[in-house]
């Protein structure tokens, strides 16, 4: 299921240190061409209308950044806008393990402005209860705990370091139920932070009460 939610609009973006290739900027004949022609060349030398998949979690795989973006600061700025906004950057996030997506989002201001889809999946934490309870379900011995990862993601979202999750539109019955809970948590953090101006420690105190209620209904929301 693909869903994203923007963070607060008052984002402060820190500058990034120049790459080693910045020193060759004045020597590149490409930069002497008109901007329209440069954009045409950029579009011909890298994908600009593709779905680029990023697998996070234990099986993390990241596509290699186009070499054109490593030439110099100006080319990185101009071509990077086409690359990150023109393509769809699809992050596959299992069981809310968004740490690598968050790191990717923090690495560059252009990453924050990219066309991003967050595709979440969830492992069902229940198994058939056995012959004494036909059709019944029991919790797995060691189900994946979602709350610690969600809490970390919410904190980075509140700090405007990454996107959050909006209400999903498709998925299995179980995954939709979990994803709806996740989207409600992001909506709550957005309202408490953006609309009411609360700082993270205040929001975290509210979330602790919510976590207790969720944990009583589903083992995945327990702390351990």
Automatic annotation (TrEMBL):
Pfam family, one: 2EXR
Coiled coil spans: none
UniProt superkingdom: Eukaryota
Basic and acidic residues: compositionally biased ranges: 1-12
InterPro entries: 2EXR, AN11006-like
Domain 2EXR: 32-90
Name this protein carries in UniProt: 2EXR domain-containing protein
Region (Disordered): 1-21
Source organism: Passalora fulva
């Amino acid at each position: 299921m693909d869903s994203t939610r923007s963070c607060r609009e008052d984002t402060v973006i820190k500058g990034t240190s120049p790459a080693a290739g910045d020193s060759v900027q004045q020597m590149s004949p490409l930069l002497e061409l008109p901007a329209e022609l440069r954009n045409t060349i950029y579009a011909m030398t890298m994908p600009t209308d593709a779905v680029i998949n990023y697998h996070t979690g234990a099986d993390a795989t990241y596509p290699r950044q186009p070499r054109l973006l490593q030439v110099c600061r100006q080319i990185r700025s101009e071509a990077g806008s086409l690359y990150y906004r023109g393509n769809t950057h699809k992050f596959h996030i299992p069981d809310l393990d968004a740490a690598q997506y968050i790191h990717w989002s923090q690495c560059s201001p252009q990453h924050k402005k990219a066309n991003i889809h967050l595709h979440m999946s969830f492992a069902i934490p229940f198994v058939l209860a056995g012959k004494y309870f036909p059709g019944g379900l029991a919790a797995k011995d060691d189900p994946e705990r979602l709350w610690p990862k969600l809490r970390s993601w919410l904190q980075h979202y509140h700090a405007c370091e990454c996107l959050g999750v909006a209400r999903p539109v498709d998925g299995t019955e179980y995954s939709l139920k979990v994803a709806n809970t996740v989207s409600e948590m992001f909506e709550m953090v957005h309202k408490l932070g953006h609309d009411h101006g609360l700082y993270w420690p205040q929001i975290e105190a509210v979330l602790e009460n919510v976590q207790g209620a969720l944990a009583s209904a589903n083992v995945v929301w327990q702390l351990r």
